[in-house]
Amino acid sequence: LALTNTPPLSHIYVFTDAPAKDHELKDSIQALIEQTKCKVSFLLTNAISRRKRDVNARFGNQLYRVLARVSGGLAVVIQRALISSLTFIIEDSATTALVMLAFLS
């Protein structure tokens, strides 16, 4: 949804604690990334201890990594407690660009 409702060349940050589940949408999402030229970064907090869920998380995280790489973004697994520190970095890098307009007569 973010790719269809965001201006081209945007940087989208996805915060999630769940592994990707809709693997069949990969090609559609990749096409949207290429069309919009958006960078998509995934911030993942799904370090799971149970073995079965851990396997599913790694498989889901691999899809996030593929989509991030295609878009030029990042896929980062981070501890939930560190998310607030990371958002400060994102805020610092998400500044608006100053545009100078010159009018010639």
From TrEMBL:
Pfam families per the UniProt record, alphabetical: VWA_4 (PF25106)
Q: Which keywords does UniProt give here?
A: Secreted, Signal
Transmembrane region(s): none
- List localization entries: Secreted
Keyword Signal belongs to the record: yes
Domain Hemicentin-1-like von Willebrand factor A: start-end pairs: 1-78
Q: Does this entry carry the keyword Nucleotide-binding? A: no
Domain of life here? Eukaryota
Name the chain's protein.
Hemicentin-1-like von Willebrand factor A domain-containing protein
